[in-house]
């Protein structure tokens, strides 16, 4: 197991070690134990030693004691091994193969068999470590299809997670927050005291503000026994699909959390790596397939993201003592980046996003506007509305960018069908379309109330539809911008005919029918399709 809420770290410091496991480690590191001629690869973390031997991997819990993780006795380590298989195994079929005892025999220690059990190991199917998603991301291979599959994997994990109604989420988060502040305060050479105090103040205010919401979400079933450690390094491609593994098994209280707090770890990891488009895509795809009530929880997301980034800074700072030279310099840069990001999530107007160092050294986009705004993008089918929305959303409003509300998605949700399932003609009657647009406006108002920006992606062919969405911004007291995308008939038809695996059912016949519409006066900013994505007009202030 890695550190409790973040990335793998060096072995525990001697003061945390409570037992001598050197003989067990020597046994598992010996190729002869596994009938091999090639060397065994060993990987060490805070809480485990992993031995990669041929087609298998053996993970031994370290005999350590931390306030958050107690593996101080054989029985506790045995229980943790079985818990890992029980908790992580169902979501990763074929990866977890069981628990194997290490026993004492008349001839010495042995892996499996009869004898006095002196240790236990989780046996796993060995996988290609280049296929963990942190490595995939470093190669630039997080494709749109893979991001979509990643969102599905998270949704499936959350759907299967046991509900924990009544769990006191706020108290647990406050404990994390207090621990972060203590650790930061003890390292003034790394974390400037003034900034530590500011982060503590912002965090405490944010937590106090969302505490009633957290209680309501706990009562409603949005607190569950989650993965708890869901970052890119703990997700691997197996048989071409992303699989979550290495969930927190040693502490139910740590793993029990709000679903959006669990998701926030993944979003934070993507965001800090400079993968802003991917973070926004996972975020929106998760919301599209979730209960509408999840939208209300977005009010807590800035705090969740900040706390996750703070925990990353704290955990990585704890490992600096084991680093030297250029590696230590790089590690310190990561720590400072995570701390700066924790501040920026809560106060995007104070810290320029462009000034934050990213994990992969990428150049970040311009700073996010601190204000909440409503954008609407319209145009005939094939004009590029969804592409425009996906490109613009990461740069709008609070991290991880704007919530995208797409008419094609909401029409399928109202019909109770899968995103790519073609709907019958009666789903496109004027009455059905009015219901879709009314739903878009209701959801937009709901999101704006949480402080997040929104992009509404729909044809908006009728003047009353365009007026109605602008009225949502006026009612919410936020700026509004309407963008109308134009494209030639041939290009519209070419695009809709080239689509596959998309929520839109539009075809060439639909485009030709739309071309006959009387669109009325279009007061929105008109732009050739896709040509103005980097420089679209800013939102205007709402009318009084």
How is this structure best summarized?
This protein is an alpha/beta fold and 544 residues long. 42% of the residues lie in helices and 15% in strands. A six-stranded antiparallel sheet has the order 1-2-3-8-6-7, sandwiched between helices. A five-stranded parallel sheet has the order 14-15-13-16-17, sandwiched between helices.
CATH class of the largest domain: Alpha Beta
General form = globular
Structural class: alpha/beta
Low-confidence stretches: 1-8, 351-369, 531-536
Count up the helices: 17
Q: What's the number of domains?
A: 3
CATH architecture of the largest domain: Alpha-Beta Complex
Counted beta strands: 17
Polypeptide structure, described:
The protein has about 550 residues and is an alpha/beta fold. The protein has 3 domains: about 110 residues, no CATH class; about 220 residues, Aminoglycoside 3'-phosphotransferase, Chain: A, domain 2 (Alpha-Beta Complex), CATH 3.90.1200.10; about 160 residues, Rossmann fold, CATH 3.40.50.300. The chain is built from 17 helices and 17 strands. Strands 1-2-3-8-6-7 form a 6-stranded antiparallel beta sheet, sandwiched between helices. A 5-stranded parallel beta sheet has the order 14-15-13-16-17, with helices on both faces. Strands 4-5 form a two-stranded antiparallel sheet. Strand 6 and strand 7 form a beta hairpin. Helix 4 packs across helix 9 and helix 5 runs antiparallel to helix 6. The longest helix is centred in the middle third of the chain and has 27 residues. It is globular. It starts with about 20 loop residues before the first helix and ends in a 16-residue tail after the last strand. About 45% of the residues are buried. The N terminus is likely disordered.
């Amino acid at each position: 197991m890695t550190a409790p809420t973040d990335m793998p770290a060096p072995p525990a410091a001697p003061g945390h070690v409570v037992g001598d496991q050197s003989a067990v480690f020597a046994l598992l590191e010996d190729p002869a134990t596994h009938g091999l001629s090639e060397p065994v690869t060993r990987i060490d973390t805070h809480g485990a030693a992993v031995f990669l031997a041929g087609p298998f991997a053996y993970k031994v819990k370290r005999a350590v004691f931390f306030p958050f993780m107690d593996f101080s006795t054989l029985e506790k380590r045995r229980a943790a091994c079985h818990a890992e298989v029980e908790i992580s195994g169902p979501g990763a079929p074929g990866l977890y193969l069981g628990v194997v005892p290490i026993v004492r025999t008349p001839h010495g220690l042995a892996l499996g068999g009869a004898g006095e059990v002196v240790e236990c190991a989780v046996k796993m199917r060995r996988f290609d470590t280049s296929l963990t998603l942190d490595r995939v991301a470093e190669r630039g291979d997080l494709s749109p299809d893979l991001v979509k599959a990643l969102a599905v994997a998270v949704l499936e994990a959350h759907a299967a997670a046991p509900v924990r109604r009544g769990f006191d989420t706020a108290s647990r988060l406050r404990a994390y927050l207090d621990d972060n502040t203590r650790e930061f305060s003890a390292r003034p050479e790394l974390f400037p005291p003034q900034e530590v105090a500011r982060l503590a103040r912002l965090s405490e205010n944010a937590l106090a503000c969302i505490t009633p919401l957290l209680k309501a979400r706990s009562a409603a079933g949005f607190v569950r026994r989650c993965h708890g450690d869901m970052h890119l390094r703990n997700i691997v491609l197996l048989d071409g699909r992303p699989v979550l593994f290495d969930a927190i098994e040693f502490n139910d209280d740590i793993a029990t959390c709000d679903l959006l707090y669990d998701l926030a770890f993944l979003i934070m990891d993507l965001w800090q790596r400079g993968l802003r488009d991917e973070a926004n895509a996972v975020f929106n795809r998760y919301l599209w397939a979730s209960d509408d009530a999840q939208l209300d929880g977005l009010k807590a997301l800035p705090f969740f993201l900040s706390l996750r980034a703070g925990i990353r800074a704290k955990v990585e700072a704890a490992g600096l003592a084991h680093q030297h030279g250029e590696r230590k310099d790089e590690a310190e840069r990561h720590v400072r980046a995570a701390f700066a990001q924790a501040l920026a999530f809560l106060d995007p107007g104070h810290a320029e996003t462009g000034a934050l160092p990213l994990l992969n050294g990428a150049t970040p986009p311009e700073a996010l506007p601190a204000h909440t705004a409503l954008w609407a993008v319209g145009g005939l089918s094939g004009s590029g509305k969804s592409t425009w929305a996906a490109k613009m959303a990461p740069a709008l409003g609070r991290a991880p960018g704007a919530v995208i509300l797409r008419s094609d998605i909401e029409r399928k949700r109202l019909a109770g069908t899968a995103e790519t399932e073609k709907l019958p003609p009666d789903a496109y009657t004027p009455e059905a379309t009015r219901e879709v647009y009314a739903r878009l406006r209701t959801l937009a108002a709901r999101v704006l109330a949480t402080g997040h920006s929104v992009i509404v992606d729909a044809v908006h062919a009728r003047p009353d539809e365009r007026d109605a969405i602008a009225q949502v911004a006026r009612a919410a007291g936020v700026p509004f911008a309407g963008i109308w995308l134009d494209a030639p008939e041939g290009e519209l038809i070419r695009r809709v005919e080239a689509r596959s695996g998309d929520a839109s059912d539009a075809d060439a016949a639909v485009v030709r029918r739309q071309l006959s519409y009387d669109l009325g006066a279009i007061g929105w900013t008109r732009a050739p399709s896709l040509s103005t994505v980097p420089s679209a007009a800013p939102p205007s202030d709402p009318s009084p």
